[in-house]
Amino acid sequence: MTWDWALDGWIILAGVLSATSCALLGNYLVLRKMSLMGDAISHAVLPGLAIAFILSNSRSAWPMFMGAVIVGVFTALMIEAINRYGKVETGAAMGVVFSTLFAIGLVLIRQVADHVDLDPGCVLYGNIVQIPLDAFGGGIPPAITNLAVVLALNAAFVALLYKELKISSFDPELATTQGINASWMHYALMIMTAVTTVANFEVVGSILVIAMLIVPPVVAHLLTDRLGAMIALSLVVAISAAMGGHVLALFGPGWIGLDATANTSAMMAVVAGMLLALALLFSPHHGLIGRAYHRWALAQRIVQQDILGLLYRWHEMRPGENQPLPREHVLEAVGDGALARWAIRSLLRRCHVESRIVGGCERGLELSKEGRAAATQLIRSHRLWEVYLAKHFNLPPDHLHEPAERMEHFITDELHEQLAHDLTMPSHDPHGRSIPEPDNP
Amino acid sequence: MARRWIDILNCPTRWAQSLSRKSHSSAFWVGLVLCLGITFSLVRPCNADQGEPTSATHFDNAHTGSQADGQPSTSHLLIRALTLRDHRTRVVVIGTTLLGIAAGVIGTFAYLRKRAMMGDALSHATLPGVAGAFMIMGTKNLPVLLTGAAATGVLGVLCVAGLRRIPRIKEDAAIGIVLSVFFGIGMVLMSLVQEMNTGQEAGLNTFIYGKAAALLVQDAQIIGGVTLLVLLGAVLLFKEFRAVCFDSSFAASQGISPTWVDFLMMGLVVLTTVVGLQAVGLILVVALLIIPSAAARFWTDHLVVMTLLAGLIGAVSGWIGSTISASAPRLPTGAIIVIVAGCLFFGSMLFAPHRGVIASLARRWSIARKVALQHLLRALAECEELADRGKTIPLEMVLPKRSWSAAQLRRLIQRATRLALLERSSSSSLQLTTAGRIDAERILRNHRLWEMYLIKYADIAPSHVDRDADEIEHILPVPLVQELERALLDSEATPPSPHGEEGAAR
User: Fold this and answer.
1) Are A207 and B338 within 8 A, CB to CB?
2) What is the pTM of this model?
3) What is the per-residue pLDDT across A226-255, written as a single tens digit (0 to 9) for each?
4) What domains can you pick out in chain B, each with its CATH number?
5) Residues of A in contact with B187 (CB under 8 A)
């Protein structure tokens, strides 16, 4: 496969324009939990297109956009009416409306198929490769112009109504009290979605347009919490999906030894899916790996602190003996199961390095100076919490240990002070053991 | 895990017991299955005359690609299609009807479980399976392609379930992602298949739009088999499906695992979808799952009835749709079936007796009429209190009682006069009849009782109780009125207005 900038440049540009115009709106669809509205509208505009074709008898852009706008609003209204008056839940109402409208569109297209060059297959998966060929003798292909206009419209829509869209997406009631008509924003979004969908039919088709609407914003949402950053990231994802899609469509099959090229628009959706998979794995806060690491780190910390607490109690029960705690005893007391054992082993090693525990396998474990300070803090948390529970929740003494055992790892220094102050500096827990004072060096 | 398997294996015996023990609804089901078996067997003898196509409806034209010279009239074709005279028409009509039954029945449970749009993700997710199976096996053998479709369909469902668990991804986004990305993978594979030019790939596109018009006996048989399976599943798992649909935590407490029941339910949905690809295509098959059940919901609150009705609506859409498309040129069968189903849905939504839009609007209208009349009567009763009983009440005294226009008031008075609740003593004054006075006093009494109740027991200021009482006075049941009287009144007389003379006058 050879790369020809005169052809592939236009294709990539078309892909980028289409993906970015979709992703811009998609952010709001995803945040409003209306992703499927994009799905519904992109199917439902088909009869609008067909009727526009029949009435204007041409494939020019304006009748198409008008048809799309009318049907887009009609779809949104129908879904709402069925939901409200028929008491059908929104998902099912969407299914009813879009499939019926799509069927009507199919029938209309079949009826006029002889007169108008409109291939139902093209509606589904676009014909991006055709775009550069439409520009006779150089110049800008008409599809590119349309897409650029739609992208400019969407960008203006998002930029001018940024604040309004933001408030009405996150909190429609607040928007209403601020004098923003949330339902107008809803319909404006629906109209823009319909227009964007129609402009993208030629490029990615009606089903893959859903990928461009939904996937980049979801990827961005996995990576950030801020709306502005989310929009920017979704644009980056959309652009990478469009470029990567075309490159992979041209050269990907060659890499696995097939002598063929794949459909570019479909490959754009696939690349978007791959980016989503990457984000799912590697996103710092919401990614599977990140979450697994956080859970693992937390488990390590808890086991570590449990060992410190165990050592403290061991020494407390044997005052003056200074006998080290046997290692097997630690394993027995803190946890069982292969994973826990492994965690403890690696922890013992780490504790040793951090010099909280002195001694090794031969002698058993005993607390170092730093270790004693940390353990004192922990035991203090535990026993303060027990006092608190006994005082404010009236729990019997034999119900106090379990919750305190869980809570002790999450009591911050500040909470510590507050508890001690609130409980008027108690010196003993409800079981009669003394609450250690933190050593002040 | 092992115990769950044993439970599932034990189920048939339990179900057999419950079938024999009771449940006339089960008898219904068994009858339906029998009917289906008979219909199914209708297809088989046609194997014999497969070879001799007697050109007739448009299905034959679609199949053979020939347009007959002397084009017969639409009505003629319609009759031929209705009477199932041609073998091809018979196969198509029976196939789509059976599909309608299966999709309607299993769709009911998916609909009630709020999994309606899951079918959309699922049907799009079958495409990579079809294309992949063709690429790997290199054959267009139908069972192979359908197996591939089912495999990726299940994968798609699992992906939706997995994505939904990620806090940042809501269910709608999960469905949209799976739907579009899987479809993208499918399209990539399809484009590769097409470029490899084996000359075999021509038929794969039919999975997107369906090819009901060219349905073969084998296809119809597969549809019939799946329909039987779905009906059997619905009968045997009816109790489990019902429990999980309406209250999955209750189901779990009864020892029914919602996960497994969901899995079986989605399994049946996958089967139905996969065989539906052949007939209506992957975009519209979701319509057959959703529309019949959503339409049936308007007619009944009873699950058995709803399931039967959804099956019936599905069957009728399949039958009428394929018949219509047989009788005129260029009507894609799948789309026509969906349009028929859509019409049935909108018909049900408008005209269903209780939940229908017209019925509920009519109900609301008649209540509004009754309330307006009672408001008039109460206003008159209040006026009478101020004037002396039995005296005529001038119109200008009634008009300021409520925020009604003079025209509205005039129409109300006309209606009340027709009902003999009041009579006009002169052109500008009114008088309650005996019947009217009984009604009026009852409403006034209800109003006052409720006001007193709110003031005494709900600690609401007297100036704030009027509106509340205004709404409830029309619907207070007699026992409640009696209880209020016991709690609030010493004598039989209608209590005075808590707003004082001035309030009553206002």
Assistant:
1) no
2) 0.81
3) 999 999 999 999 999 999 998 998 888 888
4) 28-42+72-355 (1.10.3470.10), 360-505 (1.10.10.10)
5) 125, 208, 263, 265-266, 269
